[in-house]
Amino acid sequence: MLDHPTTRRALLGGALAAGSAAALSGCDAGFLWNPPVEPDPDAAVLDAAVATTLAAIGHYEAALAAGGGDTDRFTAFLANHRAHLVELRRRLPPPTDDMPPPPAATAAPPAVDPAQASTGRLRELEEEAARARLEQLERSSAPRLGQLLASIGACEAAQASRLGGDL
């Protein structure tokens, strides 16, 4: 047993010393000193838009590699998709220490068998992409992103039409 009672001053001094030691040692004591960064809600929308754009690029590249077809039109449509990809990627959130870059930031177009890149398949891809833009518009929260998605979707619908599509 102790001969002398613990004073309030000694108790407060000990608590202050323990708190200082924990803070200086990097111990977070259960507190969030740096709360986690919340993911951008439009990042998933951008990821999906980039994925469909990359798929179109891969198919147009395969169609051009196969030869035949309307190469002038395919070249122009491929250029449109590449321009769309640049604009979509510009809007991806920058990577941070807490959040690495999304896969869409660096993904390459898929390798497509030239036999799978017919005019009919290109038309289907354009139609699917134009429909996907409508769904992405509903999920996007940033007005400028919505404008970009609407513009890209209109371009894809026009390209589908020029390839013989129903849109």
Automatic annotation (TrEMBL):
<feature type="compositionally biased region" description="Low complexity">
    <location>
        <begin position="105"/>
        <end position="117"/>
    </location>
</feature>
<protein>
    <submittedName>
        <fullName>Uncharacterized protein</fullName>
    </submittedName>
</protein>
<dbReference type="InterPro" id="IPR009078">
    <property type="entry name" value="Ferritin-like_SF"/>
</dbReference>
<feature type="compositionally biased region" description="Pro residues">
    <location>
        <begin position="93"/>
        <end position="104"/>
    </location>
</feature>
<feature type="region of interest" description="Disordered">
    <location>
        <begin position="91"/>
        <end position="118"/>
    </location>
</feature>
<dbReference type="InterPro" id="IPR012347">
    <property type="entry name" value="Ferritin-like"/>
</dbReference>
<dbReference type="InterPro" id="IPR006311">
    <property type="entry name" value="TAT_signal"/>
</dbReference>
